[in-house]
Amino acid sequence: xxxxxxxxxxxxxxxxxxxxxxxxxxxxxxxxxxxxxxxxxxxxxxxxxxxxxxxxxxxxxxxxxxxxxxxxxxxxxxxxxxxxxxxxxxxxxxxxxxxxxxxxxxxxxxxxxxxxxxxxxxxxxxxxxxxxxxxxxxxxxxxxxxxx
Length: 148
Prior knowledge:
Aminopeptidase
């Protein structure tokens, strides 16, 4: 397995994987992240977007943003936005490899804390993974949205 930085050429494959992952639905009415926002995320200079591949087969991706790291604060926070593994590649260490590499890159940017959200309506796979990685459960919220 190879972990590498994403490129704009990965868009179609990664976006399709995001759309096919029900846990990533952003609301009851909206699918996965807006295509323009996702395309930006692939090369966001304030983010870390990594891809796991086996040969030329993309198995998953991770995306974390560090938008607030320039604040003059002691603790530097990053947000784990997405951690996605294709169903056929799950339980093979792909998520752990992506997460480990992402954290290594975050530490090089002097990030001290990481937070993220998990879909409480999923099968708990991501919640179990985050607990295994040392995340503490926070409050539960209900997402609500409206197109205006």
